[in-house]
Write a structure and sequence with these properties.
- It holds the Pfam family MazG.
- Its EC number is 3.6.1.8.
- The chain contains twelve helices and no strands.
- The chain is an all-alpha fold and 274 residues long.
- Among the domains are: 96 residues, Helix Hairpins; 48 residues, no CATH class.
- Helix 3 runs antiparallel to helix 4, helix 8 crosses helix 10 and helix 9 runs antiparallel to helix 10.
- The protein is globular, with a radius of gyration of 25 Å.
- The N and C termini lie far apart (50 Å).
Length: 274
């Protein structure tokens, strides 16, 4: 790897090196044309993607990959901060200082005089009270104010429902949520048979929203659960492809009945009953 003596080394300060690399990539005279033309909007999708890749590495317990993915995510923070610096909005140091100040303010039981003698549940309530005060200081007075619109839809649904639940807008038990799912599924079926596509999409969204609520009541992370389901589907379908290959076939040479039987075989093998 070529070494530029003008750059700090990782041994000296890895973060300083990364910041200098990004500054030079964005230099309007000598930087990279692609990096120079990026802005907050064009980089935001990469930021979301990298956060999901961090979660994926954790789910796979691949710690080497996690190290690399955390680096990719850190690069996103550095990139956004450099764009902001170029525009005279704020610097990376201001970003770091702001989050440091926020963490100190939200943990008076660690950095202040408040007692640490409390349960995790009490700390969660205190944390939410502090965040509510912060929102009030920003004139975010509505219960749902501040829930980022750019979150993945399932995650945002859960956060919206948690906020509403804090002021009593919630079903008291899981059974009522399941009843609502049955109701929404029936409405979706009816819409699919009689209504235009936009209404079908609306009813489908209603059903997903209630499913997210069920996840919250059951203390299940819906994003994590769906990632696991995706991984399971990928694993089992790959097994179907392998079994077909043993017979000299590909999926497009097969049919649903055969692949469904192979799916059941793959499932049985995973469960140790094959």
């Amino acid at each position: 790897m070529p070494n530029d003596p003008a750059l700090p080394t990782d041994a000296q300060d890895g973060l300083a090196r990364l910041l200098e690399i990004m500054r030079r990539l964005r230099d309007p005279d000598t930087g990279c044309p692609w990096d120079i033309e990026q802005d907050f909007d064009t980089i935001a999708p990469y930021t979301i993607e990298e956060a999901h890749e961090v979660a994926d590495a954790i789910a796979r317990a691949d710690w080497t990959d996690l190290r690399d993915e955390l680096g990719d995510l850190l690069l996103q923070v550095v990139f956004h901060a450099q764009i902001a610096d170029d525009r005279g909005l704020f610097t990376f140091d201001a970003v770091a200082s702001a989050i440091a100040d926020k963490m100190v303010a939200r943990h008076p039981h660690v950095f202040g005089s408040e007692s640490r003698d409390k349960t995790a549940a009490q700390q969660t309530r205190d944390w939410e009270a502090i965040k509510a005060a912060e929102r009030a200081a920003k004139a975010q007075t509505g219960v749902l104010d501040g829930v980022a619109a750019g979150l993945p839809a399932l995650m945002r649904a859960v956060k919206l429902q948690k906020r509403a639940a804090r002021v009593g807008f919630d079903w008291p038990d899981t059974a009522q949520v399941i009843d609502k799912i049955t109701e929404e599924a029936a409405e979706l079926r009816e819409a699919a048979e009689t209504l235009p596509h936009d209404k079908v999409e609306e009813e489908f969204g209603d059903l997903l929203f209630v499913m997210a609520n069920l996840a919250r009541h059951m203390k299940v992370d819906p994003e994590s659960a769906l990632r696991a389901a995706n991984a399971k589907f990928t694993r089992r379908f790959s097994r179907i492809e392998a079994l077909l290959a043993e017979a000299g076939k590909r999926p497009e040479d097969s049919d649903l009945a055969e692949m469904d039987a192979l799916w059941n075989r793959a499932k049985a093998e995973e469960r140790g009953t094959g």
